[in-house]
Amino acid sequence: MIVMKHQAVKANSLYYGFPVLLLTTIDPITGVANITPLSSSWTLIDKIVIGIAQQSQGFRNIQAGSQAVINVPASHQWNEVEKIAQKTGMLEVPAYKQKMGYTYDADKFATSGFSPKHIPDTAVPAIAECPLQIAADIENITEREQFAIVELSISQVLAAESILDQNGQINSEAWSPLIYQFRAYKAADTLLGYNFRYNK
Description:
By secondary structure, the protein is mostly beta strands. It is 12% helix and 40% strand.
C-alpha cells in the first residue's frame, strides 16, 4: 500500500465522480416537457434523492406537482447531454445563468436529439435512448439558499434489454453509465471486481 503525499487545493467543484442524470418533468399548466441534466444524487432501497438548482425549470415543474423520471444515459451519450448543458427551459433566463452563457430552449428533446417515450401510469415522458429509466413521485422538498434537495419514491425501474443478463438483472459488464468528474465526462466501464452482494 502506497502512502500518498497531499496538499491543500481550492477546487472549483467537488464533482469527484457522479453518474449523470437527465431529469424529465412536465409543466402541469402548459404540458411542456423539460430535460434537466443533474449530477447530484443517491439511492437507497426504493428512494432516490437529487440535488437541483432552484432557478431551473425542472425544479419549478416539481414544485408545481410534476412527477419525475430519472433517465441515466450511457457513457457514449455524453455529446447529447452536452448539447443541452447550457440550455434552460425558463423563458426568463436567470441573471446568473445569463452570465454563464445559458439560453432559453423550449424543446430540449429536439436540441439533444433524444426522443420522448411514454411510461405506463406516468404523465412524464422518459428518454427513449437512455438505458435506465426511473419513474418516481415527489415525497419531500427541502429548499436551501440556491438549491433544493428533493426526495422521491421510485415507482418503476425500466432497463434496456441490452444491459440485462439472462436472469433479467442489470449486467454491470454491459452497462457503462456516463460519469461527471470535475466537470469532465468519463466512462465507467472498467470492471475491477464484485461486491459480495452482486446480483443478490
